[in-house]
Design brief:
The structure is a homodimer of 183-residue chains. In chain A, 75% of the residues lie in helices and 0% in strands. In chain A, helix 4 packs parallel to helix 7, helix 5 packs across helix 6 and helix 5 runs antiparallel to helix 9. Chain A starts with a helix and ends with a helix. At the A-B interface, helix 6, helix 8 and helix 9 of A face helix 6, helix 8 and helix 9 of B. Chain A binds a DNA duplex (30 and 30 nucleotides) through helix 2 and helix 3.
DNA sequence: CTTTTCGTACTGACCGGTCAGTATTATATC
DNA sequence: GATATAATACTGACCGGTCAGTACGAAAAG
């Protein structure tokens, strides 16, 4: 059985994935989590704190998943693994990803900004991966690593928008990255 | 000189580009537009109406820009033009794009959803473009057009996130699309 | 005189946050 | 093992601030 705290975060995630921050009332969260409103404030100092905790823990989970061993692979294989894992994560935790994606453009508070610096390390991971790929000679030397990592993340993020399954998207992304679109 | 109505929409755009919907008060908009609060309600039925009008007109502008003549070009050149124009639009109307991007994940009302179906025609344009490219033999026949157009839009959207200039991003995007990342 | 704009005051729903009290579980005392 | 004490977890009615929207008279604008 879930602890109350986890039940709260879970309910909140589902609600925040459907509506933006200010349209989700603490009463709604309490109701969905089958918990009294006061309990929310027992576990979290404020609505914002709850929200940040939710993002924080989700991001931590993601980083954990992305960092697990990938030894004995060249940069290309690593890149494919990275993309696939990200896609997997987004299927598994679709609601969380929805929240993450929505939040990214907002960041209207200090606490949230701090929290998101961590998320940027996803980008850093990719950055490192690409740099290594160039050094190893598997990737073109004239790639702008900064721009490219940003673009690849953009490609992956697009996966949640549409109606296409994430697996197919991961494959297509990798395919385009490898061969381009030209005939 | 701007009409009052335009001044209002302009002020609102700038405010909504910095903060999400519910953190922008009608009083703020009135103040920034140097207009009495009542004037807002003279031109727009409600806050939501104002917001929708703002998005509506912005999207109309964008579509107008994307649709202008591109005759005598093959699909690849057209694709490049498409990407460049989108990037240009986002530099020119950065504030509006910020609002657009933030809104995309939200859509918490009927009116907004209607408004956004129009925005989807940006995707349709790209879809058509790719299909034609394949027919003409400039693009690989085994591309999943649906997935690919979604991915390309994702690439372009990534341009606003980061610190990189949009022009460089547009170039990098087109480059990756043409040649892939492999050495 | 009709339309548009202004300024200011006002209303009321809604929602984040509080708090006094209750339930539950753990720990000590006889 | 029964009883008292403490610590923690939880409850929900209530309060106070905020803000969309209204009211209205005056006054520019055309």
């Amino acid at each position: 059985m879930l602890t109350k705290r986890d039940a709260i975060l879970d309910a909140a995630t589902r609600l925040f994935s459907k509506k933006p921050y200010h349209l989700v009332a603490m009463d709604d969260i309490a109701k969905k989590a089958k918990v009294a409103k006061g309990t929310l404030y027992y576990h979290f100092r404020s609505k914002e704190d709850l929200y940040v905790a939710l993002l924080q823990e989700g991001i931590d989970n993601l980083l954990l998943k992305l960092k697990t061993e990938s030894s004995g692979m060249n940069a290309l294989e690593n890149l494919q693994l990275f993309i696939t894992r990200l896609a997997e994560f987004f299927i598994e935790k679709k609601d969380f990803f929805e929240v993450l994606k929505r939040e990214e453009g907002n960041l209207f508070s200090k606490k949230l900004k701090n929290c998101f610096e961590k998320a940027c390390s996803v980008k850093d991971l990719l950055h490192t991966l690409l740099t290594r790929g160039i050094a190893e000679g598997h990737l073109r030397g004239n790639l702008d690593v900064q721009a490219t990592s940003q673009i690849i993340l953009g490609m992956i993020k697009s996966s949640v928008n549409g109606t296409i399954e994430a697996k197919k998207l991961a494959d297509t992304i990798f395919d385009i990255l490898l061969h381009g679109v030209k005939a």
